[in-house]
Amino acid sequence: MLPAARLPLDIRATGLMLMLCLCWGFQQIAIKLVAADISPTLQIGLRSVFAAVVLACIVLRKEGWAVFADGTLVPGLVAGALFAAEFLLVAQGLLYTTASHMSVFLYTAPIFTALGLHFTLREERLRPAQWLGVAIAFAGIALAFLGRSQEVSAPAMLLGDLLGVLAGAAWGTTTVAIRKSRLSEAPPTKTLLYQMVVAGVALPLFAWATGQGNPVFSPPALASLAFQAFGVALFSLLVWFWLLRRYLATRLSILSFMTPLFGVAFGVLILDEPLDAAFVAGALMVMVGILIVIGIRMKAP
Fold first, then answer.
1. Helices 188-209 and 73-93 sit at what angle, rounded to 10 degrees?
2. pTM of the full predicted structure?
3. Percentage of the chain surpassing pLDDT 70?
């Protein structure tokens, strides 16, 4: 049976993507707001545990234990380890840098995905114009790091920003690993289950091993966890996968770049985070570079 044709974006898809970008843009803010009560690493670990339990119930009810006998277990664990590494880097980075910076540097992932696929899949080779986009994006990262004013260039913030870029690289590598394995043909819920299970085990263990495992479940912390568990880990990802099954992925990817813009805006308005001119210019270069890479792919035959 031929796969169903993907639809161009309509009002419903655009509205849902706007809602998802708002949700994703706010997640770094939600983590940062209650970091004094629950460490970022433990927050992400706890939301992953919740999502893993819900997804396990859904997947096992549908397929039973045979779900792990289709050759996806090993690549699933690899994808899960990369996913856990990504969010460990995000959580640790938020201890040092602002949520605004993390929102931008995490979304360098498409550049690392494009580079990884270029070197592993012949049909994904980058065109010259796409290499220009990659160069612009990396120049933007360099400007954001090296051009900032002295008051926002503290070593701690630089470390946090570096962890954000590494988180983007881990995200991009996860996409390549999924594309290169049997997970590329697996239901999205199964891939997400592997990721949440590994993160749900690894991140809480890391938090407790490093002295970050003493949460204070204050009302704001519980509200933040509820948003992250229901809004981010379950609702937003399931809606995203639903959209990917029905609409053109490249068009959805273009709209997803509203996320760092929302993240920066929320960081400034809610957390009163400062914006350095070099960071703003560098962030815009990163976004332009990524849009060039994705835009050329959209036009490719």
1. 50
2. 0.88
3. 92
